[in-house]
Design goal:
- The chain is of the alpha/beta class.
- The protein has a domain of 133 residues.
- Helices cover 38% and strands 11% of the residues.
- The strands form two sheets. The protein has an eight-stranded parallel sheet.
- The longest helix has 27 residues.
C-alpha cells in the first residue's frame, strides 16, 4: 500500500450521521435554521467533531436525495421559516401559519406545499426592497456568480412545475430538444417563476452559510455526500445531454446499478444514465471539476457514494427490468482524480465509499490518491468472505468507520430482524450473524447498539461516525432507507432533542475516554 505522505483528513475524530431533514422543529422537516445551529452546539458540547449529512440536492423520485433534480442546487425543503421571519421577509402570523404537526416521519407532500408558499410570500417582500439594499446586492452577486448552473436549473424547475411535475422527456418536443426559440419563449413566459427559483437558491445558500460558520466556530467538520451518478430527470441531463449516454429521444441507452448483492437477489437497478466519458475527456472533465468545487463550497469533506464507479460501472441496457444482465465497463477515474489533485492538492478532501464489488483496481485508485475508505461494523458478522476486514480491531488510521449507513437497517433492527424481502439474508444467516455478534461482544445483546458504538470508538479508525438512530437504539422503525423500495424511505426525523440528550451524554464520556473528538482536535483538518 502506498504510504500516506500528507497530513490525513482526520485524526481520531468522531461524530454522527444525521440528514438535515431529520432535525426537529415545528415546520414538519429539519431545515437550515435554528434547529441546525442547535444540533451543532449539541455535537460540540458532547465532544464530537463531525456532522455527516446526505446529499443536499433537490430530492427526486421517491424523495431520494440520491436521485437529485440537480447536482448543484439545494433542496427548497431546507428553507427555514424562522430565518425568513428574522430577516423581515415573513411576519409573525405567517410564521405560525407554516407550522405542521410534529411527527416522527416527514410528510413530504405537506412540506413541499408549505415551502413553495413560504418562498413565494418571502419573494414578494424581497423584490420590494430597494435595489441598493445590502441583501438585494448580495442576491445580484449570487445570481451572477452561480449563473453557470443556476439559469439552467431555474428554467428546468419552472418548466417542470408548469407541466405538473412530469419528467423532461414528457415535455413538448421543442422544449425536450432545447430548441433556442422555445427556450427563449419559456424564459419570457416564466419570468416570475424563474426569479423565485433563483431567490430560493440564494436564501438556501445564505442560511447554510450561517450554519457552516457555526460549524467552523465550534470546530465541527461537515462531511457531505456526492452521488457518483445523477438522476435522468434532472436539470443536469436536460441541459447537458451530450455528457450522458442517451438515445435520440432523450431516454437513457444504458443505466447504472449494481449486480445481485447483499440487498437484492436481482441486483439494484438505479436507472441513472451513465456518462459519455469521451465527451467529458474532450474538455478536460470540466463538469466534474466544477461539481467537486461547488460541493466543497458547502461542506468540508465529501464522501463519494459508489466510489468504485470511477474504476468501472455496472452497465445495464435502458429499459431492463432488473440489474442482473449487466456488465462492468471501465471508467477514467485516474484521469479525473489527477485533475482533482491539481485543483486541491493532497490530501484530497474526499472519502471513498468503497463497498460492494471491490477489485484490485478500485483499491489502487483509492490508495494511490490517499483516500480514506470506509468500514461498516454490521458487515463483520455472518458469511461474507470479507467480514474480518470489518472487525474494529483491524481498522487502521486511514479508514472511516461506521456502525451502519443510511442504506442499512439500524443495529437494533439488524440484530432483531427476520428474513424478508429487503435483503438476501436467510433466517439461518441472521441467526449466525446474531450468534457471532453476541460471542464477539460477550454480552446478552440487550444494548447491542452500545456494544457496537463502544468497539467503534475504541478502534484505530481515523474517524468514527454513528447514525443518530443507532445512538439512541432505534429498531427498524428508524431505518432511513431500504434499497429497492420505491417509496416510504428518507422520512425519519427526531421530534425533539430531549430524546437524545442522555445518549449524547454517554457518548461524550466514551469520546473522552477514547481520546477522540475535541480531545484530538490539534491534528484536525485545517479549515
Amino acid at each position: 500500500m502506498p504510504s500516506f505522505s500528507a497530513k490525513p483528513l482526520f485524526n481520531k475524530d468522531c461524530g454522527l450521521l444525521v440528514h438535515p431533514t431529520s432535525l426537529p422543529n415545528q415546520y414538519g422537516v429539519g431545515d437550515f435554521g435554528p434547529s441546525a445551529i442547535a444540533w451543532l452546539e449539541l455535537l460540540a458540547q458532547n465532544g464530537q467533531t463531525v456532522w455527516q449529512i446526505l446529499p443536499l440536492n433537490p430530492a427526486g423520485y421517491g424523495d431520494s436525495p440520491y436521485q437529485g433534480l440537480s447536482a448543484f442546487a439545494a433542496n427548497p425543503v431546507f428553507l427555514s421559516p424562522e430565518d425568513l421571519h428574522a430577516r423581515g421577509l415573513i411576519d409573525e402570523i405567517e410564521l405560525r401559519s407554516f407550522e405542521l404537526e410534529n411527527r416522527s416521519v416527514v410528510d413530504f407532500t405537506a412540506v413541499y406545499r408549505n415551502k413553495t408558499e413560504l418562498s413565494a410570500r418571502a419573494a414578494v417582500r424581497f423584490f420590494e426592497l430597494d435595489s441598493g439594499d445590502p441583501l438585494r446586492l448580495k442576491y445580484d452577486a449570487f445570481v451572477t456568480a452561480e449563473s453557470d448552473w443556476l439559469e439552467g436549473f431555474a428554467l428546468y424547475s419552472a418548466l417542470k412545475a408548469s407541466f405538473g411535475g412530469v419528467a423532461w422527456t414528457d415535455w413538448p418536443e421543442p422544449l425536450r430538444q432545447r430548441e433556442p426559440g422555445a427556450l427563449a419563449q419559456a424564459v419570457h413566459d416564466l419570468d416570475v417563476e424563474l426569479e423565485q427559483v433563483r431567490f430560493e437558491q440564494f436564501l438556501l445558500r445564505e442560511q447554510w452559510d450561517s450554519v457552516r460558520a457555526t460549524a467552523r466556530r465550534l470546530n465541527i467538520c461537515i462531511v457531505g455526500d456526492l452521488p457518483i451518478f445523477v438522476a435522468h430527470d434532472s436539470a443536469d441531463v436536460w441541459c447537458e445531454r451530450g455528457l450522458f449516454r442517451l438515445n435520440d429521444d432523450g431516454s437513457p441507452s444504458v443505466v447504472a446499478g449494481v449486480p445481485p448483492d447483499y440487498f437484492s437477489e436481482t441486483g439494484q437497478l438505479w436507472g441513472n444514465p451513465l456518462y459519455a466519458w469521451d465527451v467529458h475527456r474532450s474538455d478536460g472533465f470540466s463538469w466534474w471539476r466544477k461539481r467537486l468545487r461547488k460541493i466543497l463550497n458547502w461542506v468540508d469533506v465529501v464522501r463519494i457514494d459508489h466510489f468504485r464507479g470511477f474504476e468501472a460501472c455496472w452497465e445495464i441496457l435502458g429499459g431492463a427490468e432488473t440489474a442482473e444482465d449487466g456488465r462492468w465497463i471501465a471508467a477514467p477515474g485516474r484521469e479525473v482524480f489527477n485533475l482533482f489533485v491539481e485543483d486541491w492538492g493532497l490530501p484530497l478532501p474526499v472519502i471513498a465509499e468503497d463497498l460492494g464489488v471491490i477489485t484490485d483496481g478500485v483499491i489502487a485508485l483509492r490508495d494511490d490518491f490517499q483516500l480514506p475508505g470506509i468500514r461498516i461494523e454490521q458487515f463483520a458478522f455472518g458469511s461474507d468472505e470479507m467480514k474480518k476486514t470489518f472487525l474494529p480491531e483491524v481498522y487502521d488510521e486511514h479508514c472511516i468507520a461506521y456502525t451502519g449507513t443510511h442504506d442499512n437497517d439500524t443495529v437494533v433492527g439488524w440484530f432483531n430482524s427476520d428474513a424478508g424481502e429487503d435483503s438476501t439474508r436467510t433466517q439461518s444467516d441472521i441467526d449466525t450473524e446474531r450468534a457471532e455478534a453476541l460471542a464477539y461482544f460477550g454480552t446478552d445483546g440487550s444494548e447491542i447498539h452500545k456494544d457496537f458504538i463502544r468497539s467503534l470508538y475504541r478502534s484505530n479508525a481515523a474517524a468514527t461516525i454513528v447514525p443518530i438512530q443507532d445512538l439512541i437504539g432505534l429498531g427498524s422503525e428508524g431505518r432511513m432507507n431500504t434499497p429497492g423500495q420505491s417509496s416510504g424511505s428518507w422520512g425519519w426525523r427526531m421530534t425533539s432533542y430531549s430524546d437524545v440528550l442522555t445518549a449524547l451524554a454517554e457518548l461524550s464520556e466514551l469520546t473522552s475516554a477514547c481520546g477522540r473528538g475535541q480531545a484530538a482536535l490539534s491534528s484536525y483538518i485545517a479549515r
